Amino acid sequence: MQQYSEQVLQLLTGQKKEWPLAAKNFAGLEKVRTRVFNFDEVEIKVQFNPERIVSSAAKVDAKSIEARPCFLCSKNRPKEQQGVKIGAYSVLVNPFPIFSQHFTIVGEEHLPQQIKGRFCDLLDLAASLPGFTLFYNGPKCGASAPDHFHFQAGNRGFMPLENELEKLKEQHSIKLRSFTSDAWAVKDGLRNFLLLESPVKESVEKDFMKIYDALEAADEEPMMNILAFYESNAWKVVVFPRVLHRPSQYFEEGEKNILISPASVDMGGVLITPLEKDFEKLQSSDIYTIFQQVLYSEPVFNQFIQNLDNA
């Protein structure tokens, strides 16, 4: 399979020279402030990144989406924005980055954010972009453009979870028996999620669809975030089942308000705070309650994996 990492990195270099918005915001990452919280063997970083207000506060209700042009459609993109074609997708530099190498991978057609029928594309793209972790935010799980299908990609190793997976798999997981790939249900005290590993793409795809079909139904699709990367000739896929789009703190007023809209990167251990007040006041207890609200609780997760293993 052809690899495109070098091409997209060349794209990033060029865009930072030719596109003032991208240049400004990538340079701004050098000033990003970070706090680190430890929950036993789990590390959570909190990043103060004011440019991410565009995503964190995005209005994603149907009326708001209908009222604005789609910023991922080629006809509406900034004239400076260029891309690298990979199959039916264009890899674009994300002008509001979290990662030092941050890309949005956009479907050619204006079709909604629904992973069913596209999961195999995610695996192919992960294999085409070694050195990157790809991620998918469901339409009510952090996607700021739920009307136009897209993945994202960031340089590997930025999210703490990537480096914690092996240890969590060994110490805080249950091996699932009824899967064709190696599959684990992981409970690390903050997050409950599933991990699939296999060198066989068809096995990962089959097992993902088994998870998809077992997840609680929602309006557009079951709520989830996905991380995926290709390493040592095998795919690793992490699926976070969700029950809520945004935590209660997002809707509070005054001092109780915390503007966090968790998506895949947050699930991977980097909570994005676009407001300085939230960055400074956030405590371990806030982080814990945010994850507990948006992800499957332990009783629900236990029942879910029991149902999966008996399927």
From TrEMBL:
Residue ranges occupied by any GDPGP1-like C-terminal domain in the UniProt entry: 232-304
Membrane-crossing residue ranges in chain numbering: none
InterPro entries attached to this UniProt entry: DUF4922, GDPGP1_C
Domain DUF4922: 11-155
Protein name (record): DUF4922 domain-containing protein
Organism lineage: Bacteria, Pseudomonadati, Bacteroidota, Bacteroidia, Marinilabiliales
